[in-house]
Amino acid sequence: MTETQAPYARIAAELRGRIERGELRPGDRVPSTRAITQRWGVAMATASKVLALLGQEGLVRAVPGVGTVVASRPAAGGPGRRPAAEDDTAQRARIVRAAVVIADAEGLAALTMRRLGAELGVSAMSLYRHVSSKEQLVVLMADAVFGEQTLPDRPPPHWRERLELSAALQWRLYRAHPWLAGAMNLNRPLLIPNGIRHIDWALAALDGLGLDDDTRMHAAVTLFGYVRGHAVDLQPETDAARTSGVSGQEWMRAQETRLAALVDGGAFPAFAAARTGAALSPESLLQHGLTTLLDGLATRITTPPN
């Protein structure tokens, strides 16, 4: 165990060791989030990450009415010392899950192969047997998290409702994984199946509406890029809130005096008149732009939907 490990990783390693040594047997309850906060003196969010990491490794599972228990068949040998029969796909998936946990907690900049190896209890070089580079790892991470939000088999009947649902699911993903938007690039797109699935879903929604293929493709990719563009600010805001302890709303309230000094002198009359009646938030800006985008697309439709 290294001193650079995050608190949640150190606690998870201790519990992992107890499971591997047989001190905690299949079906035994593991410490709850509340018990973890009390024993190790960490925040509830950190305790939740401990159980989430162990769950992603397949070591524990949640049982309704009971709590979190050791899984029936926990992996033996500890991190990086898996049974020989475990295939490369399972190893790679485990690496990706651990990388996502790090990126979610601390941002993509904190994710290095050395750090990831330390979290998994293996050397950084051993990771390259399963992923060729950090760049490939990020691609796998993006595909994995896009796979978290399953598009419904029976979509809403109207094209607009379908696109609104796709946008809402994408925004939810970016909220859950603030690093994700910065990892995407429409000029050099990540060719990930679960991301392309959103494009395919949008294209299908626009089929049969009198739009040519070029218009449909531009509309689908524009929608994807629009949501991603709004989400790019999520990671910097997360980083700023974590390092300063000041939320975005608190920061804006603290700037009110300076903002008033800028606009109340009459230099920006339109801005001054409008700002008193405006209530801006990331969600309100996203929804306003989405409505405008879809309103414009509706004018291009020549065949009314059935």
From TrEMBL:
One of its GO terms (biological process) is negative regulation of DNA-templated transcription. One of its GO terms (molecular function) is DNA-binding transcription factor activity. CDD domains: WHTH_GntR. Signal peptide: none annotated. Pfam families: GntR, TetR_C_1, TetR_N. Keywords: DNA-binding, Transcription, Transcription regulation. Gene3D superfamilies: Homeodomain-like, Tetracycline Repressor, domain 2, Winged helix-like DNA-binding domain superfamily/Winged helix DNA-binding domain. It comes from the Bacteria. InterPro entries: Bact_HTH_transcr_reg, Homeodomain-like_sf, HTH_TetR, Repressor_TetR_C, Tet_transcr_reg_TetR-rel_C_sf, Tscrpt_reg_HTH_GntR, WH-like_DNA-bd_sf, WH_DNA-bd_sf. This is Arabinose metabolism transcriptional repressor. The gene is araR.
